Amino acid sequence: MLTTHDWLDLAAGSAAVAAAAAGGLAYGAVSPASSLFGAALTAPRNPAGGRPEITFTFDDGPNPEWTPHLLNLLAEHEVKATFFLIGRYAAAERGLVRRIHEAGHLIGNHTWSHPNLLRTGDKSTREEISRTNAELEEILGGPIRYFRPPFGMRRPGTFRIVRELGLIPVTWNVIGNDWKVKSSEEIVNRVMRIEERNRRRGFATNLVLHDGSHREPSADRSRTVAATRTLLARYRQTHRTVTLDAWNIQSEG
Asked: Is 101 a catalytic residue?
């Protein structure tokens, strides 16, 4: 027969298991590195004996004010990037979407309205992604290959839906927090600190910055542009800058 102490021990054990399970699910939903809810393209190991690699990605555009500044800056440095576009913004800025594409940059799907997919059911998730795909493919006349979940959030079925729609889910291993910091210097210092940590561990860097905002299509991204200018100059001589398609074979196996 169980004593009071036995029941208390069982209750405490059950609570610990529940807390651990909840923590695991939270990690799976939030962490860019987690594969608990399905694998995603993040960043491979740097090539042995070669220069470390970095890819620049920009979320939440297109932004009619600041995306053109970024395009000019990237062209000056002869760097190609990936732009994860919000579908409803792309529909309003079709000419800018074409300009991104014609400059040789990759374009990815960032949903139609930027919802938190942790709270979005399978039907709505599929509609958000498929509607954006249809819009982007109509504008560009070709297939879209990459998808990044807004906020990095997902639930157990999210990446399954992404792959069923023919897309590769993408996360990151450096984020500049450029939507909330007060200066471009803060963005640069954060990126360089985390990039160095990745490099010490042997990994390339998949960097997220923002040319837009899910709250305001013409949000001020002057700090992001200034930080990008500094980072491009900083890494030009020391790193190999690539786009995501350079990593597919290495990262999906």
From this structure: no
